[in-house]
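Hi D.,

Good news: the full-assembly prediction came through. Inputs first.
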Amino acid sequence: MTLPQNQSPAEFEYYVNATSIEEACRALGDGVGTILAGGSDLWVQKDEGVKIFGPRLINISRVDELAEISIGNDHVRLGARVTMTDILNHGELGNIAPGLLEAANRFASPQIRNVATVGGNFANASPAADSVIPLICLDAEIELARLDGNAVAIRSIPSADFFTGPGKTVRTDDELITAISFKPRDGKSLARFFKSGPRPALEISIVSLGIAADILDGKLSNVRIALGAVAPIPFRARKTEALIEGQKIDDKLIHAALECLVSEISPIGDVRGSKWYRQHLARTYLQEALTDVA
Amino acid sequence: MNKIIEKEEIVGARIAKLDAPEKVTGRTRYINDMVLPRMLYAKIFRTDRVHAKILKIDVSKAEALPGVHAVITAADTPDGKIGVIKDNPPLKGDKVRCIRDELAAIAADTEEICDAALRLVEVEYEDLEPVFTCEDALKPGAPVIDEERPDNIAMGQNFSHGDISEGEKASDHIVEGAYNVHYVTHCNMGTSCCIADISASGKVTLYSQSQYPYIMKMDLAPALDIHPGDLRIVQPPVGGAFGSKLDVYPNEPICILLAKKTRRPVKLTYSREEEFIVSPTRQPVEFKIRAGMTSDGIFTFREVDSFLNNGGYTSWGATTPYVTMRTCTSHYVVPHVSYSARAVYTNNPFAGSFRGYGNVQATWCVEIHVDKMAEVANLDPIEIRLRNANEPNSITPQGSDLGCIDLVGCINIAAEKSGFLEKWKTNRATWDDGERYKRGIGIATSLHNAGGAKIHKSDGCGTILTMDDYARVTVMTGASDIGQGSDTVIAQIVAQELGVPIRDITIINNDTALGPWDVGVHASRTTYIAGNSAKRAAIDARGQLLSAAEKQSNVTADLLDLRGGYVVQADNGEVVIEIAKLLRQIHFAGEDSTLVMATDYYEPPTEPEDKDHMGDMSAAYSHAAHVAEIVVDTLTGEIRIEKIWSVQDVGKIINLNGLEGQIEGGIAMGIGFGLHENMQIEEGIVKNPSFRDYHLVTAPEMPPIDMTFIETDDHEGPEGAKGIAELPTIVIAPAIGNAFFNATGVWIDHPPLTPEKVARAIWERDNPNLAAE
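Then the structure:
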C-alpha cells in the first residue's frame, strides 16, 4: 500500500476507440496496448501504481458485438462486455445459471455492477473475483481473439485453466477476451454461490464458494466446487468433488467432505481474514449447500 | 378590524436544515472545491519509519524540479510545537516517532509536480528500537519516545471517592473484567484540507475545517512565530469533522509556512489513504475493572485502571480520561470509586478527539460489565440498572449536580417498547438448541454532559444580532456549524423570539474576523451554549422592537407580541404594525435614528475541574438507553441488527428533523465502532488505510430505529433543551455486545464484534480441544 506520492499520472500515447473486434485486435496486435472496458478495477489499480498503462489505451466500450448475451438450446454465450447489471436484468439467466445471478447480485455495489464486465472480471484475475466462481462451476470456456495476418483467430480456454497467478492469465498480450460461454445443465441441478460479508454491497470476498452438480436420487454427479480468495487463483476443489461424486448425501458424507475441503485448501491470512477463518467459512458454505440437498 | 395573526411554534417543529437545498442539489462549495487566484498546491513528504534518528534530509533535487516553488524542512521552521502538551513539531528534524511523520513539504504549480518532487527527497536514518504497547513502553529500560518525558507517560489522571476497602467489605460479589477498545477513525467524507493566504502586510487568512477557530489562533501562533491576532480563520463548508479538527495538526502550520515562503496562496489536501494513516484516531484504551455489589445487586464499589496508547505525539486523545472518569465513577450510584488513567507514548499513530470523546470507550467497559454483574447477581439487565440508577438532582462523586435527569425513564421506556424481558428470557433458553441462527436482545445506557463542558477558562459563546430595514435578521455567532445543524437551531430560536420567518434569518458562523468568540464545536455544547447566547441577543432585540412599538401604539410592551413579521396584540393577535415598517421608523428618525442591534456573551454557570478532578463542568447532564435486537449467524459470525430502540433525554426538542438525524447518524457511527470498523495497526503501521478494507456501515445494514424523546425541560438550556449529539454514538455498541451474550451465552470483551471474532469465539466454546489456530 503506497501513498499517492508514489503515483504517476495516467500516461499513454495513443487512445483507440474500437468499434469492432477486429479493430480492437488490430490495435492490440503489437502487444503493448491496455484494454479498457468498465475500468472499475483497472483505474483503481492505475491510481495505486499497481498497474501501469501501456502506450496505447484501447477502449472496447463501443464494440457492440461484445455486449451480447445469446442463449441457445445447449449453449449460453456472454459477450466479454456484458456487465453484472446486464446479468442481473436478463430475464432467463437466473433460471439457467442461478449461481451466476447470485454472484452478480453480491458483486461490489450497484454503481460498480453497472460498469464492471464479466470479461474484465476474468482478465483482472483477482483471486477474489466473484463472477468467475460460478462460471468455473459451469465449465465455462473463455474465448480469446487475436489478429492472425489479416483475419481474427479465436481460441477457447477452459475457465479452470485460464488463471496462472494473481493478476495473471494465459491470455497473451495481443489477445482480447471476446466471450465466456458454457453449456447449461439439464434436468435437476444444484447451483449455489456463497460469499462472506455482512454488508450486502461493497464486500471483497474473504471467501467465496460456488458449487454446481446434477441431482439424482439424493446423489450428486458432475460435481464442480470452486472457491475464491483461498489460493493465488480461483481454486477448484477437485478432491472434495471426487469424494462427493455419485455418493448419497448424508451426515457422514457431509462430514467427510468438509474435512476434505479444509485439508485441500491452504489460504493465507491477511487484513480481511485469518487462515482459520477462511477455512471455517469455506467449510460453512459447503455444509450449507450439502445440507440443503440432503 | 386589523389582520389577525396566530402564534406559530417554530421551536419543536420539523425544519429542514438551512443548508439542505445547497447540499442536495450539489451546489455547496466545500473547502476541498475552493481555488484562489495564483494558488499553489502542497504535499507533505512523510517518513516510512516508525522510530528513527534523522541523520540527513536532502531536498536539493526536489527544489530543482521545474514547477516547484518551495520546499521546507524543520531547518526552515520556527521552533514552536503544537499539540495538547506541545510535543509535536510540525516538521520533524531530529527524529521520527511514528509512521508518516512530516519531514518536508513542497509547494508547486500542481499536485502532480508535488508528487514528482516528493520522490526526489532523500533521507538518511538510523533506526531506533520501537515500542508499540503500553506494557512494553512502561518497562524499565524501554525505548524513550519523547526525550522530555523519559518515563514515556504523556499524561495521567487519578481520582478516588470514598474508600474502596469499605466497598469491598460491603460486597457479596466482586466481578473483575478487562476491556480493550480498539482504533477507529472519523472517516470524514471530505478529507483534511486547508488553504493559507497571506496579505502583503503579513496577516494570515487560513481557510480551515477547524472546529475551534478562536482557540486555534492561540495554538497555531507559536508554530508560526506570529501574533495570534494576525491570524484569521475562515471556515467554508466542510465534509464532516466529528472531533477530528479540534486540535492543530502539522498540515495547517506547514501550509501557512509554505504560503509565507512562496508569497502565494497554498492549498494542502490529504488523499483518502493519508486521511486514514495521518489524521488522529479515537483513543484506544485498555481497561481493567473491579466492581462489587451486595447479594441484591446494589453496587458497592468500582475500581477502574486504564492505559491509553498515546502514540508518538499527544493530542486530545490523552485528555479523554476527563470524560471517561465521569462514566467510570458516576454512571449509576457507586459509593466507593477509584479511577486511574495513563497515556503512554508508543510508536503507534496518535489519537485525537472523536464524537463521544472517552465515553464511547468508558460506556463499553461499564455497560458490558454491568451485564456481567447481573449474571452473577442472578438479576435481569433491566432490574440491575434500575436498582442502581442515578436520581434527579443527585451529586456525583466528582461534585456534578446531575439536575433534571431521567435515567429510570430511559430504562423503563426502552424495556417496555422493545418487549425486553420476555425476549431476553426466551433467547437464553435457546443457547443449547443447536440452531445456527440465534436471536439476542441487549440494553445499555449512558451518562453524558449536555450543557457544555468547561475544559477552558470560559465555556462561552458570543452573538451579534442585527436587523435591517426589511426585518431580515443577521446573526453572527461564534459557534461553527460543521454539519451538525446548529445554524438551523439558532435560526429557529431567533425566529421564535422575533416573530419573523426562518428564511429571513442569515447565520454568519464561519469567520473569526466577524463572529464573537466561542470555545468550539465539541461536548454536544452548541445548541445549549450558542443557542442560549442567540436567544438572549434575540430577547434584547425583541425588547427594542416592543418598546418602539409601545410608543407607536399606546399599548404597553408586555401586551404586545411579535408574530409572522408583525407586531401584534398578544391577547387577540390583532396587527399593530409591520416589523419592517417599525424598523424603518426606528432607523430614519432624525436625531433619534438608531438600528436594532444586540450583542450577548453567554457563560454557562459551570466550573472547571480542580486538580483533584472535582467540579461541575457542565450545566446539564443527560442519559440515553438503547436496546438492540440482533440475529447472530453462529457459523459465519455475521451479526444482523433487526431493530434498535433509542430513548434519550433531550431536555426539549428544538428541531425534530435535526434531532432524528443526529440519532440516526450517531447510531450508524456507533454500530461501525461496535461491529465493523477497525484500524488494523501492526508494529505502528496502518494495514487497511482504505474504505475497501475499513468497513463503514452503509445504508442497507441500517436497522429500523424506534426513537423516543424524553423532555425533562432543563431550566438553564435554551427553550429547555440539552445537548444531544454524542449520546447516540456512545450507547449503541454495548447494547449490541450485551445482545450478543443474550443470543449465545458468550462474552466478547473487546470490540469490534467482527464476523471472524464472533465465529472464533463460538467455535472455541464448542470445540474446546480444537482451538482455532
